[in-house]
Amino acid sequence: MRKKVYPIFMLTLIISISALIMIIPSFFTKNISRIPINKEIDLPLILDDEKELKLVFFGYVGCVDICSPRLYAINELYESLDKKTQKRVGVEFIDISTPHDKTLPNKFALSFNKEFKGIYLNKQILRDYTKAFSVYFSPSLMDKTEFDHTSNLYLVKKSKMKKKIKYVYNSYPYDFKQIKLDIEELLHE
Fold first, then answer.
1. Does domain 34-187 match CATH 3.30.470.20?
2. Cβ(34)–Cβ(175) under 8 Å?
3. Judging by beta carbons within 10 Å of its beta carbon (0-12, 13-18, 19+), is residue 42 exposed, middle or buried?
4. What letter would DSSP give residue 36?
């Protein structure tokens, strides 16, 4: 009897420890899903319209593993905002791949929501943006047509003539509740 119980006990113990290893980190990172930044930026294109806030995401056209799921999620978040808030908040997708067809980033962004805006940047300006937003990207080692890149979502605010990165959301799935609270707070400052 003892020989039959021991393997079952060990298997149960291993499964329990594995589950704890996967669950425990979420308790320590629960409030780290966003980072307050409050960093002033002086870049064209972002917030150069009537919107007061922008959710900004860096990626590339055709990225199915990272960009598409996140842009779907950003669309879900955007659609959950009331119409009044949507008039004050925009979404911008900045393409890191500098495609030959400069219209592709906007077409890609529009495929997720007709209110989204895709931005093409040349390599020099892209360098300025990635530096200001601390965005990492490089050609993939496995497939040179793809990029490895950070998948953060940024909340940028315009007040008067200044633009500031207010928050970086660095975990996925995004905490919609927290982002909506941040948007409401910033719109009422």
1. no
2. yes
3. exposed
4. E
Tokens 């917030």 belong to which residue?
47
Find how far residue 179's CA is from the centre of its chain. Answer: 11
32-71 pLDDT tens trace: 689 999 999 988 877 788 899 999 999 999 998 899 999 9
Q: Per-domain residue ranges for the chain?
A: 1-32, 34-187
Per residue in 7-34, pLDDT (tens digit) is 676 666 666 665 555 455 444 444 568 9
DSSP 107: H
Element (H, E) at 56: strand 53-59
- Name the β-bridge partners of 164: 40, 157
Q: Which tokens go with 135?
A: 């965005």
CA distance 120 to 6: 61
For the entire predicted model, the pTM comes to 0.81
Torsion angle of C-alpha atoms 39, 42, 45, 51, degrees rounded to 10: 50
Rounded-to-integer distance, Cα 55 and Cα 73, Å: 12
Q: What is the CA radius of gyration of the chain?
A: 20
C-alpha span between 18 and 174 (Å, rounded): 25
